[in-house]
Amino acid sequence: MQAQYFLLENQDSYEQWRQQKLAAYPLDLTALMVTLTPNTAAYTAQIECLKQQTQRYNFALYRFAQPDQVTRYHLHQLAHALGLTDLHANLCADEDSLSAITQTQHEGQHDYIPYTNKALSWHTDGYYHPQDQVIHGMLLHCMQPAQSGGESHWLDHEIAYILLRDANPAYIKALIHPEALTIPANELKGEIIRPTSIGSVFSVHRGQLHMRYSARQRNIHWRNDPMTQEAVTYLNQLWAEDQSPYIVRHTLQAGEGLICNNILHNRNAFQDNPHQPRLLYRGRYLQRVALPQH
Ligand SMILES: [Fe+2]
Fold first, then answer.
1. What distance in angstroms lies between residue 9's CA and the mean position of ligand 1's atoms?
2. Would residue 39 be called left, alpha or beta, if left means φ above 0 and alpha means ψ between -120 and 50 degrees?
3. Cys bridge to 53: 60, 186, 205, 242, which one at CB 3.0-4.6 A?
4. With a threshold of 0.85, does the pTM exceed it?
């Protein structure tokens, strides 16, 4: 039933859903931030609150009441409570498959902007993954913010779908084409460490909309047809103008984090305190955040 919203032929249910989604904006992030107190009686209700917000906005924000006591164990515990159990291990993940996002010189990571202090363009996670490793859920936890900069911008991918469909329904048609977006193979020292990834931008998985996207300009091939090109230009303009009331902006502080159904996001450039470099932990999951019980 949920998939009906996204189908181009179902204009009525789409309109209804669209109105509901947009009416929630602008969001008040301060009000949405959920304070977490693990190992207390209130924790179950706090988790439920995160699930409710993720159901509504495809993301939720939390803050641990005691940031300095948060360990990787607490993050796994949190993810698990939210139904995020299948953690995807990427090339740069540590042994327990949470990736430490910080400036680093490790071989193999040098090409990846996430591990530098440069601005990170709009994307959803795992847009270069094969079809059987689609990332549906994500947790991003801040252990240490940068000295300056490092603000994140987020946009619910369902809102991006709405904006594109409002601009021209043909954009949606172009972006659900199975060859809309190609990411060439990743090679390191002549060895292919990730094969070419070809797929659509929008797809529906178990009745839920998924978006596979990157605004990067290099090593990316958009399908060579006018509507695809126009849709890409539309999104590029949206990012360049940076005026949309639906884009949410926040700099994660120590102990704070984002839970999401792999929404669109970017990050501003930042400057580190050399003694306390910015450090975030990221988990990528093969499922979405669980639905609330009520
Ligand atoms: Fe990301």
1. 32
2. left
3. 60
4. yes
